[in-house]
Amino acid sequence: MPKLVKDGAVIDDTWTLLEKPEGEPAEAEVPTGAVIVPLSVWQAQKDTLAQRPDVGVWLDSDETADQLGEDAAHLPLVAVNFPVFADGRAFTTARVLRERYDFQGELRAVGHFIRDQLCYLRRCGVNAFAFADQSINLEEAAQSLHDFSEYYQASVDQPLPLFRRRAS
């Protein structure tokens, strides 16, 4: 079974990521069990999929949190995809899901991000990391979540900037 880093621990990944369909999203077959569907499939089959407690949605880098919108609040998992290392749009998507849509479930980074980005992804609200590169040592990667002990800026994981925390 594949593994991932979630909330700082290496665990089994019990979810299946469904690839984007080649045909019409409304005709895509969604298997039983915990599955993460592409946004297009969610939008096309929302009435049926919303009845299932084991369906999450993944957003590609050219899709925004606003396209999922208020639906996010009812999902157990939302994944943000990094199709290539240099594409950082998922950072913004993650932060918007947490701050604008108050998403409380698992927010997972999937795809081609690197260990050095974990700390910053966590600051944007991501709490689970499924690397495309299966050779990554997940125990070592989990340690990257603690690369820095203090931050000046406010973020999802620390809403007050350092100067406000020091003043309290």
Describe this structure in a few short sentences.
This protein has about 170 residues and is an alpha/beta fold. Helices cover about 25% and strands about 20% of the residues.
End-to-end gap: 46 Å
**Share in β-strands:** 15-25%
Query: What is the level 1 CATH name?
Result: Alpha Beta
Rg: 16 Å
Main sheet strand line-up: 2-1-8-7-6-5-4-3
Main pleated-sheet profile: 8 strands, mixed
How many structurally independent domains?
1
Shape estimate: globular
How many helical elements? 6
Tell me the CATH topology.
Answer: Rossmann fold
Number of strands: 8
* Named CATH architecture: 3-Layer(aba) Sandwich
Kindly state the mean pLDDT as a whole number?
Answer: 93
Pairing-aware structural class of the strands and helices?
Answer: alpha/beta
The helix-strand sequence is EEEEHEHEHEHEHH
Helical proportion, percent range:
25-40%
**Which spans of ≥5 residues are poorly predicted at pLDDT below 50?**
none
Task: Explain this structure.
An eight-stranded mixed β-sheet has the order 2-1-8-7-6-5-4-3. It is built from six helices and eight strands. 26% of the residues lie in helices and 21% in strands. The chain is globular. The chain is α/β, with parallel strands linked by helices. The longest helix has 11 residues, at 39-49.
